[in-house]
Design goal:
single chain, 3-stranded mixed β-sheet, 6 strands
C-alpha cells in the first residue's frame, strides 16, 4: 500500500498498480508474474483495451477518481477491466511500480478452464461496452476483441467443439491482420502433431 501511495504522490497519479507474483499452493510455489510487459507500457493505454494486465489487489486509487467513476458494473467477472477502461476514458493518470506488491494465488487448472468461456465472453462484452471511448484507437479495439474471439476459438477447439471455427472467423472479421494467426490455427488443426 505504501508503495502505491508513494507512486501516486511522486508521479501525480490517479491509479497505482504493480506486477503481481502468482503462486499455486503456497507463496513459495511461484507460478510466474502477471502484469504489463515493456511493450504494454510503451503503448499504454491502447494495450489495456487489448488485455487486462492490472490485478485489482495491486491497485491504489484516489478518492477523487473513485467518485468520478462510481461503482463497479454488476457483472459475473471482468468488472475490473471495465473499471480500468472507464478510468482511461476519463483521462485518469495510471502509474506503475517496479516493486512486486502482491502475491496472488491462481486457481487450479481445472477451475480455470471451467471459467474460461465465461471470462472471455464477459471481456468481449466489456470491450464492446467501451467501444465508443475516444481514449482508444479503433485498431486497438478491434485487435482486443479479435484476440478474445481467437482465445474462445482455441478454448472450443480444446473441447472438440465445431463452433471453434465460428469464433476463428469472428476473430479474423474483427482484425483481418490476424489472418496469419488463423492460418496457423488451421494448419495445426490439420496436423495434430504441430498443435
Amino acid at each position: 500500500m505504501e508503495v502505491g501511495l508513494s507512486q501516486i504522490q511522486k508521479k501525480n497519479g490517479d491509479i497505482s498498480y504493480s506486477t503481481v507474483q502468482t503462486f499455486q499452493t503456497t507463496p513459495l510455489n511461484k507460478a510466474g508474474l502477471w502484469g504489463p510487459t515493456p511493450a504494454d507500457l510503451a503503448q499504454f493505454p491502447q494495450t489495456l483495451f487489448e488485455r487486462n494486465f492490472i490485478t485489482p489487489s495491486s491497485v491504489i486509487i484516489t478518492r477523487s477518481l473513485q467518485n468520478r467513476l462510481g461503482p463497479l458494473a454488476p457483472m459475473r467477472c471482468c468488472e475490473d477491466h471495465d473499471y480500468w477502461l472507464r478510468a482511461a476514458t476519463l483521462g485518469a493518470r495510471f502509474v506503475t511500480s517496479d516493486t512486486i506488491t502482491v502475491n496472488y494465488r491462481t486457481n487450479t487448472e481445472g477451475k480455470l478452464s471451467s471459467k474460461t468461456e465465461l471470462m472471455l465472453k464477459q471481456d468481449i462484452e466489456v470491450q464492446k461496452r467501451n467501444w465508443y471511448s475516444k481514449a482508444f484507437l479503433e485498431s486497438s479495439k478491434r485487435k482486443g476483441i479479435a484476440n478474445n474471439y481467437f482465445l474462445l476459438s482455441c478454448y472450443y477447439r480444446s473441447q472438440g467443439m465445431f463452433k471453434s471455427w465460428i469464433y476463428l472467423l469472428l476473430s479474423v472479421y474483427w482484425y483481418p491482420f490476424s489472418f496469419s494467426r488463423a492460418l496457423k490455427f488451421l494448419y495445426s488443426s490439420w496436423n495434430p502433431l504441430k498443435a
